[in-house]
Description:
The structure holds two protein chains of two kinds.
Chain A: E1 2-10, H1 15-25, E2 29-38, E3 41-49, H2 57-71, E4 74-79, H3 80-87
Antiparallel strand pairs in A: 1-3, 1-4, 2-3
Helix pairs in contact in A: 1-2
Chain B: H1 4-15, E1 21-28, H2 38-52, H3 56-67, E2 71-78, H4 81-85, H5 94-107, E3 111-118, H6 125-139, E4 144-152, E5 156-158, H7 159-175, E6 187-191, E7 212-218, H8 221-229, H9 236-264, E8 269-274, H10 286-292, H11 303-319, H12 339-346, H13 352-358, E9 366-372, H14 377-394, E10 398-405, E11 413-415, E12 422-424, H15 434-438, E13 442-443
Parallel strand pairs in B: 1-2, 2-3, 3-4, 4-6, 7-8, 9-10
Antiparallel strand pairs in B: 1-7, 4-5, 5-13, 6-10, 11-12
Amino acid sequence: MKAIITVIGRDQVGIIAGVCSLLSARNINILDISQTVLQEYLTMVMLVDMTLCEQPFGDVADSLTRAGEERGLSIRIQREDIFNAINRI
Amino acid sequence: MLNQNEILQTLAMIDQQHLDVRTITMGISLLSCAHSDVHTACDRIYDKITRYAEKLVPTGEAIEREFGIPIVNKRISVTPIALVAAASETDSYVPFAQALDRAAHTCGVNFIGGFSALVQKGMTDADRILIDSIPEALATTDVVCSSVNVGSTKAGIDMDAVALMGRTIKDLAARTADKGGFGCAKLVVFCNAVEDNPFMAGAFHGVGEPERVINVGVSGPGVVHHALQAVRGKSFDVLAETVKKTAFRITRVGQLVAQEASRRLNTPFGIVDLSLAPTPAVGDSVARILEEMGLEVCGTHGTTAALALLNDAVKKGGVMASSSVGGLSGAFIPVSEDEGMIAAARAGALTLDKLEAMTCVCSVGLDMIAVPGDTTAETLSAIIADEAAIGMINSKTTAVRIIPAPGCQVGDTVEFGGLLGSAPVQPVHPYSSAAFIARGGRIPAPMHSLRN
């Protein structure tokens, strides 16, 4: 299953490193990353593959939310299907 | 590959524009539960519902989590109870409502619909018992919803049932007077009721439906409103296209959720109902869409035309996004549940007469309207008859969900709370319709019912 992770908040050192290590610890493979920083405000979008991840989806989502809250960021994960449904025929 | 902009726009639709799936409704046939003994029948009903819908709420919550889209309500609709209870030897169907209530609480759903009777061409003994049981049933249960179909294009209008429903609504309001007549918010009187409607209070599981089914109702007035802000001042052609495209996107979400829920619950997918269902939250209003089209206040001249365009464009956009469209599908105009409608009614711009005109072109009817507590049963019946006539002649669903708020006068506001919102008490005509309603009998079906 593929999912989209979005990170939104004030830019700071180590955001990508933090998210990536959290993902690699759960066997989640990163397929694509794009990010923009506008006046210190960061928006990062990641496409990930969760096929090999054994943790339930909800638990991964909780870990990401908590990790985000520690840094004052909004981090969320959603299945890619919802974005495809809205944006692609 | 999705680009960042598309992803962020989708998040904005969910976070700021209130895009949500309004309801996942599991329809369950209770025909197999009929029994001559009331208690046996009620036990069977409780067991069947709790068995089939056991995982409905946790499944809905899991889907909500994974897709990151709110699924506001999880609900159950059942076979019209008048059909199931007909076999039981009793003169009150209140125990059936209580069994439904218990089952709904066990499953954790927030409404269960189907305490219903279909009487468009006349009432059976069971239909009569059911209607007589409605006031006590709805006053003594929490989440049971009731509906009665009093007319259809094919059968005409059963005016005896219309007269009875006026008295039933009055009785129900009196029994729930301490809560502003709240019981009436759980009772819908239909013409041309549909069998696969997932929305409350009018949902029931029709006899032509399978053993069990998943129907999904989508929403998203805020998303449409936002899209129309970008085409301010443009022609109606542009307006209609914009609504269509937006409705397509909204419905795709509903289809995705419906398929996922159907798969996980091992229950056939029925339909997606493409309705714009407002909530009392700011930014989730159908009235504000109509105002965005260029009307100063919803209810002024031009409102019916605006609503007609909206209703039609929603259907056209949505129909291609789903493999199976059904239910009511269109724009809802429940006054108490729509922040813009409440404001318009309070300002005196949106009257009962204008709402009636709007029901000719929208998906349902006079919905969640509070009228003075001293409104007579005959006047309520006459309002129902007017709506049923609109539905019958135009081959569309119409409904009346009206609350004669006990002790309230025009200018007062009745608070229902939650998604049901608050309703300003609106005036009705002071002149009597009593002699008209007292006639009884049936208004014949129109000429165009003879289509064979």
